[in-house]
Input
Amino acid sequence: MASVPFDQMDGFIWMNGEFVKWTDAKIHVLTHGLHYASAVFEGERAYGGEIFKLTDHSERLHESARLLGFKIPYSVAEIDDACRTLLKKQGFQDAYVRPIAWRGSEQMGVSAQNSRINCAIAIWQWPSYFDPAQKLKGIRLDLAEWRRPDPRTAPSKSKAAGLYMICTMSKHAAEAKGYADAMMLDWRGQVAEATGANIFFVKDGKIHTPTPDCFLDGITRRTVIGLAKDRGFEVIERTIMPEELEAIMPEELEGFQQCFLTGTAAEVTPVSEIGPSRFEVGEIAKTLMNDYSAAVQPKHAIAAE
Ligand code: PMP
Output
């Protein structure tokens, strides 16, 4: 894709109830959300002209704001409606949808009781989060130095902008070493997730994934667990320690044999390496990758086949 800067693309952005020309969707430099990270957002994908699990995402946006102590002045139904209308207006079938809500510039300082709550939605074409060729071979993950915080330290169930500071730092460190992404542990040293996606492992035909008690229980994660169960796979949500990954080769059956990430942007992405550990792009990862691709297609497209 040509590298058009994100503030210079064509089309419209929905901002506080109006469709604003893309290049005019601006905020003031003294915005609370920028200075103090009082912002929450969503990441959604449209397939064949329909946004997958749209209402689940709009509800999570509301819940994320509630956890940060503010109320979005548009209902879930209004946000759903704005997303659908904007998708049509942008003219895309397959696209990425980014709603965001933030405290405005009416009051500066830690306290922002009088700041207005703003809401905007942008939609653009974002084909694959990871390099498509690499995705089929499995992506390589670094081990992040930063850890997901204790829920007593940060509102970890909120998709809050502030929680991404350590994700960007971890991803940049990984990219500098030639990795696609990084796996983060949590504050206790348990396996948590990647910087923008949940993580799954496979061992002897069973699927294992960390219990989401201090990170997002992703909408894709829940969808993929459902798809795996539909196939009759056992899915075990439990504490996973990093030592369990240590098998250096997939043939050594001591560790996990397969690994994959799930997320709206990442979809289902197989992982081939995490630090010293190696995984094969196996049948279960491939099956779930295909099942997810089928599940996201709009119902009318499937009926027309
Ligand atoms: N964890 C993090 C940190 C994320 O940014 C995302 C993407 N929203 C996920 C997990 C996966 O969530 P979802 O499947 O709802 O996109």
